[in-house]
Design brief:
Blueprint (H helix, E strand, L loop, with lengths): L4 H16 L3 H12 L14 H17 L2 H14 L4 H16 L13 H6 L7 H14 L9 H18 L2 H11 L1
Helix pairs in contact: 1-2, 1-3, 2-3, 3-4, 4-5, 7-8
Length: about 180
């Protein structure tokens, strides 16, 4: 099914307003309609779609309202890829990172099935040493303070977390002990 762009935009607006006012049943229904509309997959706007961004943002708002901050963050990041110019999404992502940092020790999201150190490095628990090393390198570049001049404290904190996770997961003995204590 393919909806007209104006109709899709209207659905997105309605869904967003519903989410902001806490009517998530309506909002999620609208988000599903947008995500299932195949015309949004080939947006003429250079590969990104404001309607898709809106749908993922609605899902993120719902996840955040239920306390599933990991899923909310993933939805907001996906929304940002569909609408990179939306400064409100960047602000939401930063606020969510602040919430995540304020929790002293948060267990992994039950939905993800991945524990904390693996989620920090964005790898699966069965990842090889090479995959872990590659993830470390990519994340250190991603979180480098020079690439995040508007958020230096966040960049330093994320770099510290990546290095700590790598220190444990790159050493076979430390990794074995860590996994034993996680069970």
């Amino acid at each position: 099914m393919s909806l007209s762009p104006n109709y899709t935009e209207a659905i997105g607006t309605h869904g967003y307003i519903s989410a902001v006012t806490g009517r998530f049943d309506e909002a999620l229904r609208d988000a599903d309609r947008i995500l299932n509309d195949r015309s949004n997959l080939n947006s003429p706007l250079g590969g990104w779609s404001p309607a898709m961004a809106c749908a993922y943002e609605i899902q993120g708002m719902y996840c955040e309202s239920t306390g599933d901050f990991d899923a909310a963050l993933e939805n907001y990041k996906t929304a940002r890829t569909h609408n990179p110019k939306d400064s409100n999404l960047a602000q939401r992502i930063e606020q969510l990172y602040e919430k995540l940092r304020s929790v002293p020790h948060r267990p992994a999201s039950p939905a993800s099935g991945v524990d904390e150190l693996y989620s920090i490095l964005e790898v699966r628990p069965d990842a090889s040493a090479e995959v872990i090393a590659s993830a470390r390198k990519a994340l250190l570049l991603k979180y480098h303070p020079d690439r995040n001049p508007d958020r230096p404290d966040w960049a330093h904190e994320m770099t510290r977390r990546v290095l700590e996770a790598y220190e444990i997961l790159s050493d076979p003995e430390k990794r074995r002990l860590y996994e034993r204590h996680q069970r």
